[in-house]
């Protein structure tokens, strides 16, 4: 799934809308670049590889970079350009931006003269399935094995956060570098908790006791955007991951049989069923859109709200001073949980590719290496207000509380991180299951019914 910040802010970007191709893109998706061909091998470097120049970039070879003009803007790409030209002063780097990636660049892919680096993002991205089938993407394994820009003693692979390689792998080859990194789940106000004398719980029984305290204090424990119930997907699958681990989440992502109906998944859903069953969902939530639900949370009417890394930036000045928005971790649900407290739903986004027919593929790889430098990634965090897929990048001194909490939560989670990919595998299925989750939040269906219906929809989508 593309990161939520890929669209201009503050306009809302529906996940489903992001995944839908434009009519033009849909018509061309079957053949993105012309004749079918096998995936292209890595091209011979344009010059001899050497220390500090692992891809053998020719000293004066120009590099063309095209960036998606979305919520992250373009300012963050300026520093990687400076880094590249500082190391290769004879090379000219040209950069442009567009919101219409497919309309602008697909003709160039077909003609065989695409840019060297493309940020293939947004609702008008070129279809990845077609790019893979056409052999239009350069395998990026050499990038992973190259020494990192900032510490030659480490490889680029060793600087990446969990899941970056997996989410960028298509048909067995790593071909997409997702540059941003976001966490998903639910949020609470640590300042409210401090005011009330509450501690964020590490066990599910304690979580339910906290919800009871919230309700007694006149605060609905939960709200959610009923108009966009897919927000619950991240939190509910986080609970499943906590109980069942990677095995069951992989089954859900791969549309397998008995994924949702696996007893461990049902156990997690049954645990959350206590929230709607006890009337702990803010009345009227079923009719709220995303910002309405988030405002109920920010004004103290609800204790928890689902969402991802974008929420704090999206709400902007609506976030009260000192609110101290913090990402939630799933409490331990059973004594047999597969994952420890601190396990988190997180995934890389904002995809970058090097076209296999680019004039300077070595330069394209080198530019991505510069982007993944500690300096380049830290600059991205400062400019975009979200984390980078480089785990070593530092946060700016003025980072907002929500971003600081995500960074700390990811450090605590370590490798206990997973991503939801049903949305990119089958966006209609994602939406259909989300509708059932909305009914679950309203108390109209129980956990067992949610599991059965989600599995029925999955089986039908799998065919």
Automatic annotation (TrEMBL):
Xref: Pfam families: SBP_bac_1
GO cellular component: cell envelope
Keywords on record: Signal, Transport
Taxonomy, superkingdom: Bacteria
Localisation: Cell envelope
Annotated signal peptide: 1-29
Organism: Streptosporangium carneum
Record's keyword annotation contains Signal: yes
Name of the protein in its database record: Carbohydrate ABC transporter, N-acetylglucosamine/diacetylchitobiose-binding protein
NCBIfam families per UniProt: chitin_NgcE (TIGR03851)
Family that this chain belongs to: Belongs to the bacterial solute-binding protein 1 family.
Keyword GTP-binding: no
Predominant location category: other
């Amino acid at each position: 799934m593309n990161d939520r910040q890929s669209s201009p802010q503050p306009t809302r970007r529906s996940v489903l809308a992001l995944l839908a191709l434009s009519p033009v893109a849909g018509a061309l998706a079957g053949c993105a670049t012309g004749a079918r061909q096998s995936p292209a091998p890595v091209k011979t470097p344009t010059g001899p590889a050497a220390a500090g120049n692992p891809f053998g970039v020719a000293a004066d070879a120009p590099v063309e970079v095209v960036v998606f003009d979305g919520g992250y803007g373009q300012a963050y790409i300026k520093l990687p350009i400076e880094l590249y030209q500082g190391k290769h002063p004879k090379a000219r780097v040209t950069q442009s931006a567009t919101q219409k990636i497919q309309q602008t660049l697909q003709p160039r892919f077909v003609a065989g003269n695409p840019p060297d680096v493309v940020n293939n993002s947004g609702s008008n991205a070129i279809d990845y399935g077609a790019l893979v089938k056409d052999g239009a993407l350069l395998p990026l394994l050499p990038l992973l094995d190259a020494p990192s820009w900032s510490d030659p003693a480490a490889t680029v692979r060793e600087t990446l956060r969990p899941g970056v390689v997996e989410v960028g792998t298509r048909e067995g080859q790593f071909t997409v570098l997702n540059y941003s990194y976001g966490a998903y789940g639910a949020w609470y106000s640590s300042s409210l908790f401090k005011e009330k004398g509450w501690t964020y719980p590490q066990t599910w029984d304690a979580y339910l006791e906290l919800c009871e305290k919230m309700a007694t204090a006149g605060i609905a424990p939960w709200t959610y955007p009923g108009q966009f119930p897919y927000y619950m997907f991240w939190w509910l699958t986080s609970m499943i991951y906590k109980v069942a681990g990677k095995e069951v989440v992989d089954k859900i992502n791969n549309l397998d049989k008995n994924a949702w109906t696996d007893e461990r998944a049902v156990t997690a859903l049954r645990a959350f069923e206590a929230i709607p069953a006890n009337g702990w969902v803010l009345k009227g939530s079923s009719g709220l859109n995303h910002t309405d639900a988030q405002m109920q949370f920010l004004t103290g009417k609800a204790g928890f709200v689902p969402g991802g890394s974008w929420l704090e930036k999206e709400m902007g000045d609506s976030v009260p001073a000192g609110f101290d928005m913090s990402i939630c971790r799933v409490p331990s649900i059973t004594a047999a949980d597969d994952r420890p407290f601190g396990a988190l739903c997180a995934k890389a986004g904002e995809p970058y590719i090097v076209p296999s027919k680019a004039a300077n593929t070595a330069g394209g790889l080198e530019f991505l290496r510069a982007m993944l430098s500690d300096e380049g990634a830290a600059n991205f965090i400062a400019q975009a207000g979200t984390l980078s897929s480089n785990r070593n990048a530092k946060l700016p001194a003025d980072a907002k509380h929500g971003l600081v909490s995500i960074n700390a939560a990811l450090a605590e989670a370590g490798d206990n991180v997973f991503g939801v990919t049903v949305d990119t595998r089958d966006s209609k299925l994602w939406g259909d299951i989300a509708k059932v989750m909305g009914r679950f939040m309203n108390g109209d269906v129980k956990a067992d019914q949610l599991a059965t219906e989600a599995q029925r929809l999955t089986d039908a989508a799998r065919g």
